[in-house]
Design a protein that fits this description.
Elements lengths: L11 E4 L4 E3 L6 E4 L5 E5 L10 E3 L5 E4 L3 E6 L2 E7 L11 E5 L3 E7 L12 E5 L3 E3 L3 E2 L9 E5 L3 E3 L2 E2 L11
Parallel strand pairs: 1-4, 2-5, 3-6, 4-7, 5-8, 6-8, 7-9, 8-10, 9-11, 10-12, 10-13, 11-14, 12-15, 13-16
């Protein structure tokens, strides 16, 4: 992936028969432009059980503000995933699918915009799921749904799904 790639309102699908590796990012983030499209990283597209999505630095972030993000493969080893909008709008949904293990640092789809919605998060694994820094789908409108399904062990940090609003003052 090229850093700071521009994807706006159209879909971008990166598919590989085997693995997809995201090298150590110099500025610690792969930033896609804010939009409403779908970004998909699909490893093991031939379904032979060989093909991981691997981020070399567990502290690096994939940031796709407002966009939906799908990542699938035999195993996932990811850093931080963030689909929160920059200012206005809804958080994008995140779908992480692994036939083996899904190991990642965090997922944030929260929206700070008044009336905004946090994106839904789905993590499914045929093995272990580990998200030590947690999942956050909070918003000022409605929070996103969270579904985590593991066929083995499940380890997470905080899971936050709340909605809140700011009431106007009487002044």
């Amino acid at each position: 992936l090229k850093e700071n790639a521009l994807i706006d309102t159209f879909d971008a699908i990166l598919q590989a028969a085997d693995s997809i590796t995201i090298g150590d990012l110099v500025d610690d983030q792969q930033l896609f432009s804010e939009g409403t499209g779908l970004i998909a990283l699909i490893a093991d597209a031939n379904n032979d059980g060989i093909g991981d999505v691997f981020m070399q630095d567990f502290e690096d972030s994939l940031i796709a503000r407002g966009q939906n993000l799908t990542i699938s493969g035999a195993n996932l080893r990811l850093g931080n995933i963030n689909t929160s909008p920059f200012v206005l709008g809804d958080g994008g949904s995140v779908e992480l699918l692994a036939t083996g293990d899904a190991i990642l640092n965090s997922v944030i789809t929260a929206s700070e915009a008044a009336g905004g919605r946090g994106g839904d998060v789905t993590i499914r694994s045929g093995g272990t799921i580990s998200v030590p820094s947690g999942v956050n789908t909070s918003s000022r409108g409605s929070s996103g749904n969270i579904l985590i399904t593991s066929q083995n062990d499940l380890f997470t940090g905080d899971i936050t799904t709340s909605s809140f609003s700011v009431l106007p003052s009487d002044n």
